[in-house]
Amino acid sequence: MSAAKISRLPDRGVVSVTGADAAKLLQGLVTNDIAALETKPDDLAFAASAAHAGLLSPQGKILFDFFVVRTLDGFVLDVARDQAAALSKRLTMYKLRADVTITDVPENYAALALWGPSAISSGPTKGTIAFDDPRDSRLGKRILAEARFATDIASATNGQLVSDDAYHAHRIALGVPEGGKDYALGDAYPHEANFDLFHGVSFTKGCYVGQEVVARMQNKTVVRKRIVKIAGAAPLTPGTDILLGEIAIGRTGSGDGNTGLAMLRLDRAIEAIDQGMPLTSGGIVITPDTEALARYRVSAAHRPFQPGL
Q1: pLDDT at residue 218 above 70?
Q2: Residue 282's domain is classified under what CATH number?
Q3: Domain boundary, last residue among 126, 142, 167
């Protein structure tokens, strides 16, 4: 049996951004640098390149997270299906007189994930766009297939078809969050959602919406709250407060049995651990990821916390 797995992701949608000014518009709005995707390709192979990015509020909060993928006639954005229409509307607000056409086309594509040590995809072909997941190479590949071809995609790879729950279990095991599942859109900064750890933000590209806040968090403060992996003594329930005594210091997100992701106040979690106090969620004792806690200790030792950031 093949070690590779492929899963359809029914919760993903697509927004198309085309026109002569499409690259310029996106470059001035999103958190990541898409300059490497700008040159119009001579063949479909260039479409295998993608960037993980977000669109922020002026206050620096994540409104949408997505993949930006270059195609022959512009870009497609792989985004949560229930956010596709809102993202299209938000981008339209910024286009003004630019030569850009923005279209919410979730019914035109089906999204799939292919992963495993021997995962093989033929790459972009007629009717499909395939790209390596830019967040973490262990996540494998993503495929956007025209709906009419989607049923044949699994047979065109060496992946065994599995449920989307299997994909999310894989994502959770790697500690990779998704907006709307692990953090509330409109309520988290990119650093809190680990954009800096999973290649979702550029600190050198220049201005974009919310950039000043992101730069300040990168250079001048300790990020006290982040999404981290957690382990429970029993199966975890998403959307449950994490308590230190009776005080909520975090909230669980995606879960896979006894493991999951959570938005957590790292300073308070370390305080509890150092004092031998348990953290609980729904009455279940939980243990935060030791690597995330160690990163915070190093950061806090080198950069004092500044109120208001």
Answers
A1: yes
A2: 2.40.30.110
A3: 167
